[in-house]
Design a protein that fits this description.
Number of helices: 3
Radius of gyration: 32 Å
Distance between the termini: 85 Å
Strand content: under 5%
Structural class: mainly alpha
Oligomer: single chain
Low-confidence stretches: none
Order of helices and strands: HHH
Number of strands: 0
Largest sheet: none
């Protein structure tokens, strides 16, 4: 009988409880998603920190070493690469 004492919860009370429940579970789910993304990105950056990308000159030297291009083409492309690097550093 003690549950029937008083006026009880009105329609606005039920609406407020429903909205607050949706907000609570939305924040819990959002927190889990953010935590998973943070852990995934930190593990990728830790594993990839030691890997360095080869520069264009290194790739060109590797192609020359493998015999894919001859010396004249290597020198021509190397001069082109260095010419472009010098022109962009002046601006």
């Amino acid at each position: 009988m003690m549950y029937w004492w008083g006026p009880g919860t009105s329609g606005w009370g039920y609406a407020l409880m429903s909205v607050s429940m949706v907000l609570f579970w939305g924040l819990v789910i959002l927190g889990i998603v953010v935590l998973v993304r943070y852990l995934a990105s930190s593990s990728q950056s830790a594993g990839g920190a030691g890997v360095a990308r080869a520069t264009a000159e290194q790739v060109l030297a590797e192609r020359f070493a493998r015999g894919e291009i001859d010396e004249q083409e290597y020198q021509s492309r190397l001069a082109t690469l260095r010419g472009k690097q010098q022109s962009t550093s002046r601006t």
